[in-house]
Amino acid sequence: MYARITTFDAQRDKFDDTLNRLREMLPDILAIPGLKHYYHTGRADDGKCAVVAIYESKEAAQAATPIAQDIFGRFADALASTPLPQEFDVLLHGSNT
Predict the structure, then answer these.
(1) pLDDT digit string (tens) for 7-48?
(2) For residue 16, which phi and psi values (nearest 5 degrees)?
(3) Nearest alpha-carbon partner for 57 in 25, 89, 18, 91
(4) Structural domains of the chain in order of their starting residue, each with its CATH number
(5) Residue 49: its pLDDT value, please?
(6) pLDDT at 97 > cutoff 90
(7) Which residues make beta-bridge pairs with 6?
């Protein structure tokens, strides 16, 4: 597995509206080929956010890069900073579910 973690700042005055727009897009996000898990984290009080996307492989993550860029582009009006993606090998995975 392979992870892309993207951090960014959201505009606080648009935080709730943006989250609602993302909820509507969630089925499309989850349909990205090779995406296994998706987490959108954030704090409404200061707008700090991180998206954690887990892919089945590095190749799948790389193939999804233009899709992720397009999604962030749709929310450019609500961003207070440029998204900073970083990629990692998943070294260990666990779950209680």
Answers:
(1) 999 999 999 998 999 999 999 999 999 999 999 999 999 999
(2) -65, -40
(3) 89
(4) 2-89 (3.30.70.100)
(5) 96
(6) no
(7) 51, 85
